Amino acid sequence: MLAEQFKYRRAPSVPRRITEIAPEKDIRVRILGRVIDKSDGMLIVDDGSSSAEIIVDSSDVARTGDVVRVFTRVLPLESGYELRGEVVQVMNDLDLNVLRKIELMSNLGIRVGE
Q1: Taking a C-beta distance cutoff of 8 angstroms, is the pair 66, 80 a contact?
Q2: What Cα–Cα distance (Å) separates residue 82 from each residue in 47, 65, 95, 104?
Q3: DSSP 18
Q4: Which tens digits make up the pLDDT trace of 19-33?
Q5: Looking at the domain that runs over 10-107, which CATH code has it been given?
Q6: With the CA atoms of 86, 8, 74 and 104 taken in that order, what torsion angle do they form, in degrees rounded to the nearest 10?
Q7: pTM (two decimals)
């Protein structure tokens, strides 16, 4: 009975840099970056590797200059892809420089916090 409840579980959002998004295999991704521009129903987010337009229900959740984490759905197109934002979290208190150093250390196999 319990297995039937989880039959239609959605795919998890995996962390990706914008330049790493592969529309042929990515279904949902999460992007961490800074809002560099916005308009009605759209945010432009820069994660340091590139920038991307993300279609959102309401662009009022974030302001230009805010640090955000956006959970998106990747929709493949004939040329490229489209990102549809499902959740936008404002994370202005997050220090991006410290986060990048932690990611670099982790990629080099250095254990953080031990």
Answers
A1: no
A2: 16, 22, 28, 28
A3: G
A4: 999 999 999 999 999
A5: 2.40.50.140
A6: 80
A7: 0.81
